[in-house]
Write a structure and sequence with these properties.
Blueprint (H helix, E strand, L loop, with lengths): L1 H20 L1 H17 L3 H20 L2 H5 L8 H17 L4 H27 L6 H23 L21 E3 L14 E3 H21 L5 H20 L1 H7 L3 E3 H18 L2 H11 L1 H6 L4 H27 L1 E3 L7 H11 L9 H26 L2 H37 L1
Length: 421
């Protein structure tokens, strides 16, 4: 009897701890369900829109993970990586490079630019340790001013460009650049696409086979094998055998290459954390003092983390823009950091801990609200603009809550350490 009571007590404590840790995720889950109901939109339409948003945004959100693990908080300066990508895309359009070759050229231009910007960002953030999240946000705003100067006065006036990208009768780059004429639109997404059920079955088979292989190699526990293989089989059977679910997903196609790139980034995040460099990221994130005492060059490791994040964000911005088909020259980058940061926090990440799963779950929940908020606002309040204002409020609100919770936990941990000493 005593053992049973102890087990119940442990379960209650575990549930409370889980609720405290993922309260934001649970609130967003409840809001998502509520908004989907009140939006009145067909689930098939919501699902199709959601898949499009995931293919556009997941790569950028996953680019935030490494700096978080390295203890540098949310890298809002990924906005600067997006700016580097937009420089690359503008030059590709100017040079008339087409299709996948053009996007690869843009990615090649982004690599050195974003690496340089990441080095400068990391070096500056090393001067403001403990305030990296706010510092990177301010850096993004500062860089936006320099970007406007570059695109309005330097490009087209000092650096000559063709009429395809400049403002007619004036200097500077045009407000909107069209990717459709040069075959850049959907250049990655259209390489290979499959109906969602087919893609799901293929992914499920791969997950099951990979899980079995890892289990046989003793790299995966039996419990983890059952969880992964069981979830994959359940989702496939759900789509295969349940007609209402088939109706929801039937008309949606999956851009396979885009999601393969997202999957490769997930694998990269996992593998790099198992390398010596990844262990340094973790050590620095847990305690800069201890890491420094262990002989780790803390400032160098932090700069590398920001450089990787900035380059990945730039490549993610290329995927984002090729999916949209137009480049809003002076606005496409402005909300990248805010929305990506809010999405990963919604998934349960904090300012010092993040995983691929949290990034994926957060992006999913965040963009469900983005998809249905206008319709829900219109049906609930008679004004679609309320839904638009609500989702912007949510983005800022989630970040504010994360900052408050991080400060509260840090203070609580400091008080606990003081009392124990």
């Amino acid at each position: 009897m005593a053992d049973l009571n102890k087990r119940r007590h442990d379960l209650r404590e575990a549930a409370r701890a889980n609720l405290r840790e993922y309260i934001v995720t649970y609130v967003f889950l409840a809001l998502s369900v509520l908004f989907v109901i009140f939006s009145g939109r067909p689930l098939s339409d919501i699902f199709s829109q959601l898949m499009g948003r995931l293919s556009r945004n997941l790569f950028i959100v996953l680019a935030l993970i490494i700096p978080i693990i390295a203890g540098m908080g949310i890298n809002f300066a990924i906005t600067i990586g997006a700016m580097a990508a937009q420089v690359g895309l503008m030059l590709v359009i100017n040079w008339d490079l087409e299709g996948i070759v053009g996007l690869l050229a843009a990615a090649g231009i982004t690599l050195p630019l974003a690496s340089l910007f990441g080095f400068l960002i990391g070096s500056l953030l090393n001067k403001m340790k403990g305030q990296e999240t706010i510092g990177s946000l301010i850096l993004g705003y500062f860089a936006n001013g320099a970007y406007q100067l570059l695109f309005l006065f330097i490009f087209g006036k000092i650096i000559p460009l063709s009429d395809k990208v400049t403002i007619v009768g004036a200097t500077g780059v045009a407000n909107t650049l069209n990717l459709m004429g040069g075959g850049l639109y959907m250049a990655v997404d259209s390489l290979w696409s499959l109906p969602f059920p087919t893609a799901l079955y293929g992914v499920s088979v791969l997950i099951i086979l990979a899980s079995l292989a890892l289990y046989l190699l003793k790299r995966l526990s039996l419990r983890r094998l059952i969880t992964l293989a069981g979830t994959a089989a359940f989702l496939s059977l759900l789509v295969l055998l349940v007609p209402p679910v088939q109706q929801i997903v039937r008309g949606t196609r999956v851009p396979v290459v885009t999601f393969l790139l997202v999957g490769l980034l997930c694998v990269f995040n996992i593998i790099i954390m198992r390398t010596r460099l990844g262990q340094k990221f973790r050590a620095v994130g847990q305690s800069r003092t201890v890491a420094n005492a262990a002989g780790i060059r803390v400032n160098r490791v932090r700069v590398i983390a920001i450089m990787i994040s900035t380059v990945l964000a730039g490549w993610g911005q290329i995927l984002f823009i090729q999916n949209l088909g137009t480049l809003q020259t002076y606005a496409a980058h402005e909300m990248v950091g805010l929305y990506a940061g809010a999405a990963i926090l919604v998934g349960g990440a904090s300012l010092n801990r993040a995983t691929n799963t949290q990034a994926i779950v957060g992006t999913l929940l965040f963009h469900i609200l983005f998809t249905v908020s206008q319709d829900a606002g219109k049906n609930l309040f008679g004004n679609a603009n309320i839904g638009e204002f609500f989702r912007v409020f949510i983005a800022y609100g989630v970040i504010a809550v994360a900052l408050v919770m991080h400060t509260w936990r840090s203070n609580a941990s400091r008080r606990k350490n003081t009392l124990s000493a």
